[in-house]
Each structure stands twice: as structure tokens, then as C-alpha cells.
């Protein structure tokens, strides 16, 4: 996994909806999920495919986003 060459936009929908931007420059990936799914995947307690996460963009940027983890 290399450096992030742009920004990733995380769109959290539903209760506590918000947009989180990681990085700067041109948007290289967009990820959308509802609030409960976001909490599960960002804490590595669920997989995007199982949680209905929508993701589009650069494969390398999406790999970086999948590796994000909050304790």
C-alpha cells in the first residue's frame, strides 16, 4: 500500500450523518455507509461487503480506507 494521492470522502448517512474527508487534492475515492455500519467497519468489527458499504474509486485509495482503524 502506497501513499494517498488525493482525498477520500466518507459519507455517513442516517442518524449522525456527516461527511468526513481524509487527505487533500482531487477526490480519488468515495465511500458511503450508514452510521452503524461505519462504526463497525472503522473499528474492524465488520467487512464492507457484509455491511452494505458502497465504495468507488482508486483501488489503492480504497485499500488505504479499508485499513483505517479506530479503537
Describe this structure in words.
- This protein is of the alpha+beta class and 71 residues long.
- It has one domain.
- The protein has helices at 35-42, 48-51, 59-67, and strands at 7-13, 18-23, 27-34, 54-57.
- A hairpin with a 4-residue loop joins β1 and β2 (18-23).
- The protein is globular and about 30 Å long.
- The two termini are 21 Å apart.
- The model has no long low-confidence stretch (mean pLDDT 94).
List the helices and strands and how they pair.
Blueprint: E1 7-13, E2 18-23, E3 27-34, H1 35-42, H2 48-51, E4 54-57, H3 59-67
Parallel strand pairs: 1-3
Antiparallel strand pairs: 1-2, 3-4
Supply database-style keywords.
71 residues; alpha+beta; four-stranded mixed beta sheet; 3 helices
Brief write-up:
With 71 residues, this protein is of the alpha+beta class. Strands 2-1-3-4 form a 4-stranded mixed sheet.
Major sheet summary line: 4 strands, mixed
Note the gap between the termini: 21 Å
Helical content stands at: 25-40%
Structural class: alpha+beta
Q: List the domain count as a whole number.
A: 1
Low-pLDDT segments: none
**Taking strands numbered 1, 2, ... along the chain, how are they ordered across the largest sheet?**
2-1-3-4
- Could you tell me the mean pLDDT? 94
> Count of helices?
3
Any idea what the radius of gyration is? 11 Å
Helix and strand run = EEEHHEH
Amino acid at each position: 500500500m502506497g501513499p494517498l494521492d488525493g482525498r477520500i470522502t466518507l459519507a455517513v448517512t442516517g442518524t449522525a450523518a456527516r461527511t468526513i474527508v481524509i487527505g487533500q487534492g482531487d477526490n480519488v475515492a468515495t465511500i458511503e455507509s450508514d452510521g452503524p455500519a461505519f462504526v463497525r467497519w472503522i473499528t474492524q468489527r465488520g467487512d464492507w461487503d457484509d455491511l452494505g458499504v458502497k465504495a468507488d474509486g482508486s483501488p489503492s485509495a480504497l485499500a488505504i480506507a479499508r485499513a483505517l482503524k479506530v479503537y
